[in-house]
Design goal:
The protein has 563 residues and is α/β, with parallel strands linked by helices. The protein contains 17 helices and 15 strands. Strands 3-2-1-6-8-7 form a 6-stranded mixed beta sheet. α1 packs across α4. The longest helix has 38 residues. It is elongated, with a radius of gyration of 34 Å. The relative contact order is 0.07.
Length: 563
């Protein structure tokens, strides 16, 4: 901080010097109103003629009239501005004035802020490192006010754009699920009069606790009209077969029942990545794109452990290079600035160095409202089906706070939608690079490999005995979980289970045929296993257990004995 202190003083000295120069240039004779003082050439001695004295009196009277008109004009301007403010309700004041009039900042803090305001957004990696070094030792309130000034109050292009286009763009927003850290940030934005120009986004997955939905009203009531809260909803994405894997946005989903109809009741478990995409990632990105957001504020902290242990105050989140994020760039594509707004968005983590205890000490000391589930022992709250109390085995560990999140999620399967999107992007990359597209080979000598032409024939048991069973795997050779499961499937085929045939169907570039015009086989992830039989009548049952040899063999034996 010594280097920063010296830089700050230099900047303050430069600022003071520029103001002094500015004051010396704007004297009373340079304001364009020459009538405020009579020119020296018009001053006459007492010995002048009566006509000259009469002319001087007339000039003085005219000058007085001009002065009165000027004052009246200024008064009228003030009155009109006041009326406009009253008509329009509580208008946003000139943003730069909020800092000068902020009673929550001491003189020393105001001096520090003025120095911070001279620090622009980085345009090189070195500048980003240097800026993070400066911000690392600051309290969150200074970091937030710096961001607000940089993107709003001190951004003249933004201010001019707002004058022309209204308040439809939001360069700076907070994104929060109303966890403890997010609540501290929200309270700081309110305390330092920033909340009215920094909208807040929260993402409703339609699977939250009822207490979380009640808390929406609590937090809105607490911050009253200064909180501009936007709640996103999951997106409806369709994958029509005729588009060969391309997706179509069909709107938003507003109820849990509708979500389950569009996707499935278990998408969160069978394809957690795709579930996150349609409930959080895509809705958020659409809103940020709509608002032309340059920076969003998060509540991530190093003390939460895992990948967050190396977080900085400021980071740049580049747009992924896939077709879902195509942007109009034109000349901006050649911009040398790696952090240009056409290439990504800034993420600000103002509480990155705070501990869990610091967060809660602030909440208690400042009487910040919070979700009542925290009083029951929860330390991190998300969707109802994937949130539990933290694991006692992790007490004292960095990951303890979030150890109750994302439980029971499928880590032994590849989600179908997200997996196929990756395959498509990978194939396109090889084609554009002129490289050969090769498919990994998963050998299973005693398995029957099915395709779209032979699938129904085998499923309908035309080539099998009436009392035989068909263990059918839907897989992709690119799927890591399928590759791990391949030895188990080989072992099951080699085991020669009585009257049981093992077959598999590669879903990478094939559509699963319908059975009697019905989509009988629902595949949300790979590998997926079905047991198909014809006795006493046709049935197809999905396996939902662990992808282990003993567990599958036990399931097959039980099913055979029950028929």
């Amino acid at each position: 901080m010594q280097l920063f202190e010296s830089n700050r003083r230099i900047m303050m000295a430069r600022r003071h010097n520029s103001r002094s120069q500015s004051s010396s240039k704007d004297g009373p004779n340079n304001d364009g109103h020459h009538f405020l003082e009579s020119p020296s050439s018009q001053r006459k001695s007492p010995n002048n003629s009566s006509l000259a004295r009469r002319a001087m009196v007339i000039r003085k009277d005219m000058n007085s009239i001009q002065k009165i008109k000027c004052v009246l004009g200024l008064v009228m301007i003030v009155v009109v501005m006041s009326l406009l403010n009253n008509i329009g309700g509580r208008q946003h004041h000139v943003l730069s004035e909020r800092y000068d009039a902020n009673d929550n900042n001491s003189a020393a803090e105001t001096e520090l802020l003025q120095a911070l305001y001279d620090l622009p957004l980085p345009t090189t990696q070195k500048e980003l490192v240097d800026l993070n070094d400066e911000l690392a030792g600051l309290e969150p309130k200074f970091i937030l006010q710096w961001a607000h000034h940089t993107l709003l109050a001190g951004n003249h292009n933004y201010l001019r754009s707002r004058e022309t286009n209204g308040w439809n763009s939001h360069p700076l927003v907070q994104v929060t699920s109303f966890g403890p850290t997010g609540l501290v940030i929200l309270d700081q934005l309110s305390k330092y009069n920033l909340l009215d120009t920094v909208p807040v986004i929260t993402m409703d997955t339609l699977h939250l606790f009822k207490e979380s939905y009640v808390f929406y009203d609590t937090v809105q009531s607490h911050y009253n009209s200064t909180l501009h809260l936007t709640t996103t909803k999951p997106v409806h994405i369709a994958h029509p077969p005729e588009l060969d894997g391309d997706s179509v946005f069909k709107g938003f989903i507003f109820s849990k029942v509708e979500f389950q109809d569009v996707y499935s009741p278990t998408l969160w478990k069978t394809d957690p990545r795709y579930y996150t995409k349609v409930t959080k990632i895509d809705p958020l990105q659409q809103k940020l794109e709509e608002w032309q957001t340059i920076m969003w504020i998060t509540g991530r902290r190093r003390s939460q452990g895992g990948e967050r242990e190396k977080l900085d105050v400021l980071e740049f989140d580049s747009f992924p290079p896939d077709e879902d994020n195509r942007r109009v760039r034109s000349q901006e594509d050649n911009n040398d600035n790696p952090f240009h707004s056409s290439k990504g968005r800034w993420k600000l983590n103002p509480l990155v160095y705070w501990s869990y205890d610091q967060v809660w000490n602030y909440i208690k000391a400042n009487e910040v409202p919070y979700n009542l589930l925290y009083d029951l022992g929860f330390t991190s709250i998300g969707d109802e089906m994937t949130t539990t109390l933290p694991k006692k085995s992790h007490v004292g560990d960095a990951i303890y706070e979030r150890s109750g999140r994302f439980v029971d999620l499928n880590r032994t399967e590849c989600g179908l939608h997200s997996h196929l999107q990756k395959i498509k992007a990978l194939k396109k990359h090889h084609e554009e690079a002129g490289e050969e597209w090769t498919v990994p080979e998963l050998t299973c000598e005693k398995c029957i490999d099915l395709n779209e032409d032979t699938f129904l024939e085998t499923v309908e048991n035309n080539n099998l005995r009436d009392d035989s069973l068909l263990l059918l795997e839907f897989y992709s050779p690119f799927c890591g979980s399928c590759q791990e499961f391949a030895p188990v499937l080989n072992r099951l085929a080699d085991y020669q289970i009585p009257n049981t045939v093992v077959a598999r169907f590669d879903i990478t570039e094939q559509n699963i045929p319908k059975y009697i015009n019905q989509e009988l086989f629902q595949v949300e992830s790979t590998p997926t296993l079905y047991l198909v039989g014809h006795s006493p009548s046709f049935y197809a049952e999905m396996y939902s257990g662990k992808h282990e040899f003993d567990a599958i063999l036990q399931w097959l034996t039980k099913k055979r004995n029950s028929r």
